[in-house]
Design a protein that fits this description.
Elements (H helix, E strand, L loop, with lengths): L2 H10 L5 E6 L2 H12 L7 H4 E5 L6 H7 L9 E6 L12 H12 L5 E8 L8 H9 L1 E5 L4 H14 L3 E2 L1 H11 L3 H14 L5 E2 L1 H7 L4 H13 L3 H13 L4 H20 L4 H8 L3 H11 L4 H20 L4 H13 L2
Parallel strand pairs: 1-4, 1-5, 2-3, 3-4, 6-7
InterPro entries: DNA_pol3_clamp-load_cplx_C, DNA_pol3_delta-like_C, DNA_pol3_delta_N, DNA_polIII_delta, P-loop_NTPase
Protein name: DNA polymerase III subunit delta
Catalytic activity: DNA(n) + a 2'-deoxyribonucleoside 5'-triphosphate = DNA(n+1) + diphosphate
Length: about 325
C-alpha cells in the first residue's frame, strides 16, 4: 500500500494491527512515521506510544507492550526500528519468538505494531518472517524517480510562490544524486535565500547545496576518464581533505567504474537497467550519458587498476596518494 492509502485508513479509523514499512527514501519513511503518530492524541503519547530500536534494545519490552492493553485510550502505538529478527543474521529465542507470533496472530485490541524494516534484507525462509508478511499491511516506499522529483519540486515551490529555473533544478539533481530525501532537506534553505526575489537560481544551488559524495565521485570518474590529470588529483585531494578515507574513495570509484561497465553491457531502457542493477534510474541516466564519451577498453583497464589499488590499500602500508597518482598517470597513457 501507499502513504495515501494509509492516510485514508487513518481518516476512516480502519487501521490494521500490524504494519511492515519498507523503503530506502528517508523522507518518505519519516512521513509514514508522522502519520502513525497522528493516531495517538498528543496528551496520550507518554502512556500509549513506545519506540524500540532492536539494533540496540532487547525484545522483552516490546513483548510486554504488545501484551498490554492501551492505557486510558483507544490505541497503543508501538514503532520498531531495525526488526533484525526478520533478517538472516538474528534469531529470537524460541520462547520470545512463540510469544511474538501469538501476539501478532491474536493481537490485543487497539494495539498497532509498526515494523520499520526500511531496506533491511528479510529472510523469507524464516517462519517468523513468513508470518509477519502474511499478517501485516505492507507499506512500500520505493525511491522516487527523477521525473516525479521534478514534478514534486515544481508543484511545491509554485504553491508557495517560488520559482526555480531549469539550470538550477538540473544542478540540484546532480549535487544530490537525485535523492528525494536530500532535496527535501535543502528546500527550506533555498527558500530562505530567495525570500525576497522568490527565484531560486543556479548561484543559490552552487552556493548552498553541498555535493553528495556520489556527485564528487562522478566528477572524479569523469576527470579520470577524460585524461584531466590536474583536475583528477585536485578532486581526489579535496575528498581526502573533507575527511573521506582513501579506501572509501577507491571503493566508490571502483563501484562507479563497475556501474559504467554493467550499463554498457546491458540492453533495454533506463528503468529496466535500474531494476536489474538495483540502483536509482538517475544513476543509469548519468552513466549512459557518460559512456558516449569513454572508450570501453579504458574503462576495463581502469576497473582492474582500481581493484589492484584496493588490494594494496588493504594488505600493505602503501601511500594511498601515490597509488592514486600512479593510477591517474597510467590511465592517461591509455
Amino acid at each position: 500500500m501507499k502513504l495515501s492509502q494509509l492516510q485514508e485508513q487513518i481518516k476512516q479509523d480502519s487501521l490494521a494491527s500490524l504494519y511492515l514499512v519498507e523503503g530506502q527514501e528517508g523522507a518518505l519513511l519519516d512521513q509514514s512515521r508522522r502519520l502513525f503518530m497522528q493516531t495517538i492524541p498528543v496528551d496520550q503519547q507518554d502512556l500509549n506510544y513506545s519506540h524500540y530500536d532492536l539494533a540496540e534494545d532487547v525484545v522483552d519490552g516490546l513483548l510486554d507492550d504488545l501484551a498490554s492493553l492501551p492505557f486510558l485510550g483507544e490505541r497503543r502505538l508501538i514503532i520498531v526500528d531495525n526488526p533484525i529478527f526478520l533478517s538472516p543474521k538474528v534469531k529470537l529465542p524460541n520462547t520470545a519468538e512463540k510469544q511474538f507470533l501469538d501476539l501478532i496472530q491474536n493481537p490485543i485490541p487497539g494495539n498497532i505494531l509498526v515494523l520499520m524494516a526500511n531496506d533491511l534484507k528479510l529472510d523469507q525462509r524464516k517462519k517468523i518472517t513468513k508470518k509477519v508478511l502474511a499478517q501485516s499491511e505492507k507499506i512500500s516506499l520505493p525511491l522516487v524517480a527523477e521525473g516525479q522529483i521534478r514534478s514534486i519540486i515544481m508543484q511545491r515551490l509554485t504553491a508557495q510562490g517560488f520559482n526555480i529555473d531549469d539550470m538550477a533544478l538540473k544542478e540540484l539533481l546532480l549535487r544530490t544524486n537525485a535523492s528525494y530525501t536530500d532535496i527535501m532537506a535543502q528546500l527550506d534553505k533555498l527558500k530562505a535565500y530567495a525570500k525576497d526575489s522568490r527565484q531560486i537560481d543556479l548561484t543559490a544551488i552552487q552556493g548552498l547545496v553541498p555535493k553528495s559524495i556520489h556527485a564528487h565521485v562522478f566528477d572524479l570518474t569523469d576527470a579520470v576518464m577524460r585524461g584531466k590529470v590536474a583536475e583528477s588529483l585536485h578532486l581526489y585531494r579535496q575528498l581526502v581533505l573533507n575527511g573521506e578515507a582513501p579506501l572509501k574513495i577507491n571503493t566508490l570509484l571502483l563501484n562507479q567504474f563497475r556501474l559504467l561497465l554493467q550499463v554498457a553491457g546491458l540492453t533495454g531502457d533506463q528503468a529496466s537497467k535500474a531494476r536489474t542493477l538495483n540502483v536509482h534510474p538517475y544513476r543509469i541516466k548519468l552513466a549512459q550519458a557518460s559512456l558516449n564519451k569513454y572508450r570501453p577498453s579504458q574503462l576495463r583497464t581502469g576497473y582492474l587498476a582500481l581493484q589492484s589499488i584496493e588490494i594494496a590499500l588493504k594488505s600493505s602500508q602503501a601511500d594511498p596518494a601515490l597509488l592514486f597518482e600512479e593510477f591517474i598517470l597510467k590511465q592517461n597513457q591509455q
